[in-house]
Amino acid sequence: MKTTPHFQDADTFYEQLLDAHTGLSREQSELLNARLILILANQIGARDVLAECIRAAKQLPA
Predict the structure, then answer these.
(1) Using CA atoms, how far apart are residues 62 and 13, in angstroms rounded to an integer?
(2) In this predicted structure, what is the pLDDT of residue 15?
(3) For the residues of 27-55, what is the DSSP string, one character each?
(4) Has residue 59 been placed in a domain?
(5) Of 13, 11, 30, residue with least CA distance to 21
(6) What's the pTM value of the predicted model, to 2 decimals?
(7) Which three-class secondary structure state does DSSP give residue 24?
(8) Residue of 52, 45, 61, 58 lying closest to 3 (CA atoms)
(9) Does the residue 2 lie in any domain?
(10) At 22, is the secondary structure helix, strand, or coil?
(11) What does the pLDDT look like over 16-61, one tens digit per residue?
(12) Rounded to an integer, what distance in angstroms lies between the CA atom of residue 30 and that of residue 36?
């Protein structure tokens, strides 16, 4: 699992993410997030890395 910033252009990604949610209901927004998580997880693929990412996300403050 990468623990240092690895974005090529974090600001653009963040802007695209916010734009994707524009005009969506809360439910639609949550479904978009769920689909995006699954698509990104598929890109990672490795079960051990995904498990490590889940553990790391649970440790971060809300």
Answers:
(1) 21
(2) 97
(3) HHHHHHHHHHHHHHHHHH--HHHHHHHHH
(4) yes
(5) 30
(6) 0.81
(7) coil
(8) 52
(9) no
(10) coil
(11) 999 999 999 999 999 999 999 999 999 999 999 999 999 998 996 7
(12) 10
Q: Both tokens of residue 7?
A: 């974005």
Domain containing 48 equals 25-62
Query: Average pLDDT for residues 3-13, to the nearest whole number?
Result: 89
**Residue in the structure block whose two tokens are 């403050």:** 61
Residue 1: inside a domain:
no
CA proximity to 43, closest of 15, 35, 56: 35
CA separation, residue 56 to residues 25, 33, 48, 60 (Å):
29, 18, 12, 7
Number of domains in the chain: 1
HSE (CB half, 13 Å, CA atoms) of 34? 6
